[in-house]
Every structure is written in C-alpha cells, then in structure tokens.
Amino acid sequence: MGSLIKPNLDSETKATRVIEPKLVCLPMVTLLVVMFFFSHNSVAASKEVGTIDSAGIERLIKANEGAMVIVAMAAWCLPCRQELPTLVKLYDKYRKTGLKMVGISLDLEGSSAIQPVLDEARVNFPVYWAGEQAVYDLKITAIPLMFLVSNGKIVERIMGLQSEKFLDQKISGLLNRNSERIPRGLPRGQ
Questions:
Q1: Is the pLDDT of residue 125 over 70?
Q2: What is the dihedral of CA 82, 172, 123, 53, to 10 degrees?
C-alpha cells in the first residue's frame, strides 16, 4: 500500500512525514458514499409493487374512512406515465391533510412491468399489481382511470390524462367533502 509524502512544516527539521492513505482517503470515501446514496435514492424512491386481487381492492375501498384516490395504470400506457409526476406532486401536497393514494397496475406481464416506471417517476404512494381480472371486475374501459373514494364509496371516476389544475381541484373537493362530513353518532343539525 503506497503512502503520501508531504513536507513537514516544522522549519527546525528537514524531515518529511508520511501520511497514511486511510486518513487522507476517509473524507473522499465518505463523499463518494454520500453521492452514491443520494444519486441512487433520488431515482428509486418508489416502494416495491405489491399484489392485490379484485376482492382486496373492494376491501381497500370499503375500509377507507376519509378521502382516497385509486389510480388504474399500466407501464405501456403513455398517458399513465405522463400523469404520474403530477400525482406524486399532488399526493405530497395533500397527504398531510388525510389523502390516501393507491396505484393499481393492470399490466399483463405482472408486477415487475410497472416497477421501472414507478422508480423513474419517484412514486411514493403504494402501488399494487391487480392484473387482467381487475379490469373486468372494476369495469375499467380506459386508463389512466382515477377513482375518487369518500368514506368507503366510489364517488367519481375520472378517465384519461388530466391537467394538474383539474386534478388539484378534484382532490381538494374530495378532501373538503370529507371535512364537512358529520361525525358518526351525531344527529344532523347539531
């Protein structure tokens, strides 16, 4: 293992001192590790795709107390891919106010087909692979398809690629609808 030779700054001796490589390289190694961590995490921020069947989707909808957006998508669908960054942005904006967002992949190739798309878009909400049967069971005729869910019921279906402004208004309205809800057990008018 080589050493770095650096002149000694002590003017009384003309000797040189040897600096061990591990002392010099430690800051460089730390910098490289930090750069590697951030470069890889910024691209692959999404979670791994889970699996869900139609009955699981129904349970997910019915168990929801509050506002939820379910987005049906596929890796081969260009409008789905184009809409993902907007969905991530809106999820980040509204999740602290109670919004839940879930993606449903309909790719015939399985859960691995959508993963690179999610990684590229830095999707930070859960996405499940449901496959072809969900298309029939949920009566999906076009994608992207967004289900707006309020307190366990689908209240609206939005088909096709939409603008950020439009989706922001829809999600904001969904959250407002849930915030105006009368708590269970209280009669109306109180």
A1: yes
A2: -100
